[in-house]
Amino acid sequence: MLQSDPVRGSSEDRHCGACTACCVHLTVPAGLPEAGSKPSGTPCPYAGALGCRIHARRPQVCAEFACGWLRNALWPPHWRPDRCGVLCLEETLPSGQSHATLVEIQPGALDKADAREIVEHLLLSTNVVSTVNSQGERESVFGRRLLTPTTPAPHRMAG
Asked: Is the pTM of the predicted complex or chain greater than 0.85?
């Protein structure tokens, strides 16, 4: 279950609804949910029009994942990935530094006001915000301090 945080608000009442952005745009390691890996940009075979068709028995890596919109209850409804066109991945690295990646899931979404507002919001509390456009091009904007190299975690974008 998602946790409550005084800065982020209570995210326990947030639900994906019909958003399946993570089901398409995240990499899933080999063996989850099937024998082979699922690369970024490839829809999960269990993603349906109304969400995950195996939600109750989905792989652990999927059950533990929460996009930026799910994790941050104070984010407005129009920042949900399927509405704003960007999927926000947040993580705290072993060094204690924070990193966020905005993945463009609708071409041109990174150039719109919602994405710019999300980046500005993230830079207030995040060390580095990276953007990945629909062509796979990556840019990084540095927040409070520089990032140190680390090993990628599951669901990190390849590239």
From this structure: no
25 membership: H or E segment, kind and range: helix 21-25
Cα–Cα distance for residue pair 91/31, rounded to 1 Å: 23
> Residue 94 and residue 26: Cα distance in Å, rounded?
21
Output the CA torsion sign for 140, 142, 146, 147: negative
- Sequence-ordered list of residues with C-beta below 8 angstroms from that of 70, at least 6 positions apart, any chain: 2, 11, 14, 16
8 Å CB contact between 109 and 85:
yes
d(CA 84, CA 113): 9
The SS3 call for residue 128 is strand
Query: b/e for 29-49, b at 16 or more Cβ within 10 A?
Result: eeebbeeeebebeeebebbee
Q: Give the residue from 109, 134, 66 showing the smallest Cα distance to 75.
A: 66
Per-residue pLDDT tens digits for 59-104:
777 888 889 999 999 999 999 999 999 999 988 888 888 889 999 9
